[in-house]
Structure formats: structure tokens, C-alpha cells
């Protein structure tokens, strides 16, 4: 196990300011509010429920509570993805996405339970078979046709988000179907007020429901549309240069007006839309691969598919529409004086920016397949030489320069690894192995901070 030595001439990496600390909402606090809201919904159901009689009564009441919880779940799922800075900065985009995915599964299951229970319960009450009861419900109850379309759309979102289907679908197709959730929730909303027993004679419950959904819609409209539009009109970003870094990897430099006002911190990412032929319709997330400075932002991207492959063809002057900065993979997560940055492949990008700006004792381990794949290596070594940090590069090929991700090998290259905060970014297989090795090397999970490039 030997670190690869560098023979590159290095670009000038000037000293950049340290990442500023900014407070966001704490994950436990956010979960607490979500659960408290769930309890409030249960209280609403309880309050509006008279005595329950017979199987039909139980089924119908089960339908009511699952329907209320499913609707509440939809509101929470939207709020989690509303790109609220306090959530993005405090909880982190990847964790929000994980909550959204897990919560989405529960929400779709609750919606399915609601549909089945309501049909069954009403069928028993009306002494009809479920088929004719379904027809009755859909075509004769107020707002139910719209609600049926909305629910089918919600199920389509759920099915296409299942892991198996997601793997087979292009990201853009999946994303388009996923955006249908907005329409689905709008279509479903009114049947709750029209038919829900809890809302029939409880004006307070109606106000609560309106406040919840109108509030979430306003937050979405503000943070997903108004704020990005204002920012882009203000900053007027353009591509200034595209540079080749290593096979299949390019850096894109972006200029703009008053970019300091973005307050982008090392470790964060933006969603980038390049207004070039064939690219303007997609906004993809890429991390800043250098601290923002002198009116310049930089991303470094590995060709993975259409969007990332197309960046090499960008011309200087191309208008850029960027949303962000997002993410909590920043210095604010740090709890210890000593830090280990652990990068796999293009996962180097956010760690490159942190490597330059984190103060104190910082070591970077950078893993790649081959020496020529070690993008940005020259400037990493320049920073290391200038600021007295350590950068250790390892490659799979040739094997003598590799670093197996085990506790023993980590302890060999970084003996005090257990006393460090670890920032981790790389492909899924690598990060899984790294988590295992770090745990065995004595690094508590709360000291391992990960950025995931997979949503
Ligand atoms: C927070 C974050 C930061 C990232 N930073 C970098 C970086 O600095 N450098 C880098 O090379 N890569 C980065 N990525 C990965 C990069 O976004 C994807 O490789 C790229 O979007 C792939 O798009 P494509 O059209 O080239 O390939 P495709 O073949 O279309 O997509 C490959 C995979 O990338 C993902 N993906 C595609 N489009 C999007 C999108 N709009 N939003 C989220 N995921 C998408 C999907 O999981 C898809 O399966 C980052 C990803 C995330 C989530």
C-alpha cells in the first residue's frame, strides 16, 4: 500500500476564506415538528369521530384516519422538498431526500389503504358489491372524479419511484412523473373538504387544513420558483471557461455579478441549468469544486450521461441558470479539531473545496481507479504544500498503489483516524465499504459526514 506521488506542475491555489458557520434547523427538531403535526391530525380525527358501530363503521373510520394521514404525509413530503434554506442547511439535502423517499412510501401505502377501506366500508353500509360501490363513489360523490385521477397519479409516482422501476427509467422521465405529485395533491385536496366527516361541521379543522396546504404551496412557490428567478436575474451567470481535468472529467468556470451574495460555502452544490441547445431543459446538481471567489464559481464533472457529457461542448458566454446553494456538507458539521476527508473518484469535488478552507489538521485520502483519473490532484498537492496539509492518493491499478478500505489500512495511513471528523464522498460501493471500515476503526457514526451524489 503506497501513496501515488505526483509529478504535476500545479496551478496557483490562493488562500480562500474559511466556510462561514450558518445555523439551520436541527434534524431532531424537524422530525419532532413532523410527528407533532401527525399527532394533531390524529387528534382532529379523534375529535370528529362519534361512536363506531359494526364492521362497516370500523372500515369507514379506518378510511378516514388513513386518508387524513396520507394527505398530511403529502404536505410534509412537499415541504421537505421545498428547498427551504433552513432545512437544506440544517438537515442536509441528501437526508431530506432520504426522508422524502421513506415518507413517500408510507404516504402512498396510507393512500392505498384509504381507498380500499373506503370502498369496502361503503359497500358494506350500502349492501352493494365493491365494483358498483366504486362506480358510485367515483361518479356520484362530490369532487371524487378529480380525487380519483389525483390518486391514480399519486400511485403512478409511487410505482415509478420503487427501486426496481427507478433503475429502469431515465432520470428525466422519472422526474417528470414525480412532478405530477403537485397536480395529484391539487386534484385530491377538495374531496377531503367535500366528503370528510372531520371537516363537515368543524370550521377550525377546515382552517387548519387550508392553512397547512396553502402554507406549503406558498413556501414551495417562494423557494422553488421566486427565489431562484430573482437570484438568476440578479447574478446573470455565464460560462467563462471549460477545462479538461482528466479522462471524462471537465471543470466549468462560471462568472456572474455579485456572486459573493450567494454565500455559497465549500461543500455545497447548486442545480445547474445551461441555456445551450439540448441542455436548457435539465437542471443537474453539481458541487462546487473550489471555494467561490473573485466572482467565479467552479464545478468539476465526470461524464455519466447526457447532461454531464454535454458540458464539454459549452461555449464561453453561455447563460447559466443555477439554483442554490444547497446542502449541509460544510464546515458547520465539523465537531473535532482534526479532520479526514475521504474521496472516491469524482466525489473529490466538494472535498477539494473543503480541503482548501477547513482550518487545522486536515488529511485527504483520494481514491481513483488509475493515476490519470485523479482529477484536480495537482492543485490538491499545491494546497497541501502551501498550508501544511496531507494529501494521499491511491489507485486500484496498479494494485501496489491501492488502499483497501479496511480499518487496518485506514489506521496505517491515518493512525489517529478514530479522533477525527470524517467527510466522505464517493460512489455507493466505496462509501459503504468506507462506513464499515471507519466504524471498525473506532470512528463513531456521528463523526462521519457524507455527501451522496445519488438521489
Ligand atoms: C448533491 C449532488 C452533488 C453532485 N456533485 C457532482 C459533482 O460535483 N460532479 C459530478 O461529476 N457529479 C456530481 N453529482 C452527480 C451528477 O449530478 C450526476 O452524475 C449527473 O446529474 C448525471 O446526469 P446525466 O444526464 O449526465 O446522466 P444520466 O445518465 O441521465 O444520470 C445518471 C444518474 O444521475 C442521476 N441524475 C441525473 N440527473 C439528475 C438530476 N437532475 N438530479 C439528481 N440526480 C440526477 C440519476 O440518479 C441518474 O440515474 C452530484 C449529485 C448530487 C445529488
Q: What would your notes on this structure say?
A:
The chain is α/β, with parallel strands linked by helices and 455 residues long. The chain folds into two domains: 204 residues; 121 residues, Rossmann fold (3-Layer(aba) Sandwich), CATH 3.40.50.80. 51% of the residues lie in helices and 17% in strands. The chain contains 15 helices and eleven strands. A six-stranded antiparallel β-sheet has the order 4-3-6-1-2-5. A five-stranded parallel β-sheet has the order 9-8-7-10-11, sandwiched between helices. Helix 1 runs antiparallel to helix 2 and helix 4 crosses helix 6. The protein is elongated, with a radius of gyration of 26 Å. About 4% of the residues have low confidence.
State the strand order across the main sheet: 4-3-6-1-2-5
| Main pleated-sheet profile | 6 strands, antiparallel
Which whole number gives the mean pLDDT? 91
How far apart lie the N and C ends? 33 Å
Number of strands: 11
Q: Give a list of the ligands.
A: flavin-adenine dinucleotide
- Number of structurally distinct domains: 2
What is the CA-atom radius of gyration, in angstroms?
26 Å
* Proportion of residues in β-strands: 15-25%
Give the helix level as a range of percent.
40-55%
- Unreliable sequence segments: 5-20
Based on secondary structure, the structural category is alpha/beta
What form results from the Cα inertia axes? Answer: elongated
What multimeric state do the chains show?
Answer: single chain
Number of helices: 15
- Element order, helices and strands? HHHHHHHHHHEEEEEHEEHEHEHEHE
Amino acid at each position: 500500500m503506497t501513496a501515488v506521488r505526483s509529478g504535476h506542475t500545479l496551478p496557483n491555489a490562493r488562500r480562500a476564506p474559511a466556510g462561514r458557520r450558518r445555523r439551520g434547523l436541527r434534524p431532531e427538531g424537524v422530525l419532532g415538528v413532523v410527528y407533532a403535526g401527525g399527532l394533531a391530525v390524529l387528534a382532529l380525527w379523534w375529535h370528529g369521530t362519534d361512536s363506531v358501530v359494526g364492521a362497516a363503521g370500523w372500515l369507514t373510520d379506518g378510511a378516514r384516519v388513513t386518508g387524513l394521514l396520507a394527505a398530511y404525509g403529502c404536505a410534509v413530503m412537499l415541504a421537505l422538498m421545498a428547498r427551504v434554506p433552513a432545512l437544506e442547511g440544517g438537515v442536509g439535502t441528501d437526508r431530506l431526500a432520504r426522508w422524502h423517499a421513506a415518507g413517500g412510501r408510507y404516504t402512498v401505502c396510507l393512500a392505498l389503504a384509504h381507498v380500499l377501506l373506503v370502498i369496502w366500508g361503503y359497500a358494506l353500509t350500502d349492501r352493494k358489491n365493491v365494483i358498483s360501490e366504486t362506480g358510485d363513489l367515483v361518479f356520484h360523490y362530490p369532487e371524487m372524479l378529480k380525487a380519483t385521477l389525483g390518486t391514480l397519479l399519486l400511485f403512478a409516482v409511487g410505482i415509478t419511484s420503487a427501486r426496481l422501476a427507478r433503475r429502469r427509467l431515465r432520470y428525466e422521465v422519472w422526474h417528470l412523473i414525480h412532478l405530477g405529485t403537485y397536480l395529484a395533491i391539487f386534484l385530491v385536496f377538495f374531496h377531503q373538504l367535500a366528503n370528510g366527516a372531520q371537516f363537515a361541521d368543524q370550521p377550525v379543522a377546515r382552517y387548519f387544513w387550508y392553512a397547512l396546504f396553502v402554507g406549503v404551496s406558498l413556501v414551495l412557490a417562494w423557494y422553488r420558483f421566486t427565489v431562484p428567478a430573482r437570484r438568476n436575474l440578479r447574478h446573470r451567470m455565464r460560462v467563462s471557461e471549460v477545462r479538461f481535468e482528466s479522462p471524462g472529467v471537465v471543470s466549468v468556470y462560471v462568472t456572474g455579478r455579485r456572486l459573493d451574495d450567494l454565500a455559497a460555502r465549500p461543500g455545497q452544490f447548486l442545480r445547474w441549468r445551461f441555456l445551450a441547445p439540448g441542455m436548457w431543459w435539465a437542471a443537474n446538481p453539481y458541487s462546487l469544486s473550489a471555494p467561490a471567489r473573485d466572482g467565479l464559481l467552479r464545478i468539476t464533472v465526470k461524464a455519466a450521461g447526457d447532461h454531464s457529457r454535454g458540458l464539454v461542448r459549452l461555449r464561453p458566454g453561455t447563460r447559466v441558470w443555477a439554483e442554490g446553494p444547497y446542502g449541509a456538507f460544510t464546515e458547520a458539521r465539523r465537531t473535532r479539531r482534526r479532520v479526514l476527508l475521504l474521496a472516491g473518484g469524482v466525489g473529490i469535488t466538494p472535498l477539494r473545496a473543503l480541503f482548501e478552507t477547513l482550518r487545522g489538521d486536515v488529511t485527504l485520502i483520494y481514491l481513483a481507479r488509475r493515476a490519470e483519473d485523479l482529477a484536480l490532484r495537482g492543485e490538491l498537492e499545491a494546497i497541501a504544500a502551501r498550508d501544511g496539509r496531507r494529501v494521499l492518493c491511491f489507485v486500484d491499478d496498479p494494485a501496489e498503489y491501492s488502499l483497501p478500505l479496511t480499518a487496518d489500512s485506514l489506521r496505517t495511513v491515518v493512525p489517529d483516524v478514530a479522533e477525527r471528523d470524517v467527510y466522505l464522498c464517493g460512489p455507493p460501493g466505496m462509501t459503504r465499504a468506507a462506513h464499515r471500515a471507519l466504524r471498525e476503526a473506532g470512528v463513531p457514526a456521528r463523526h462521519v459526514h457524507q455527501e451522496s451524489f445519488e438521489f
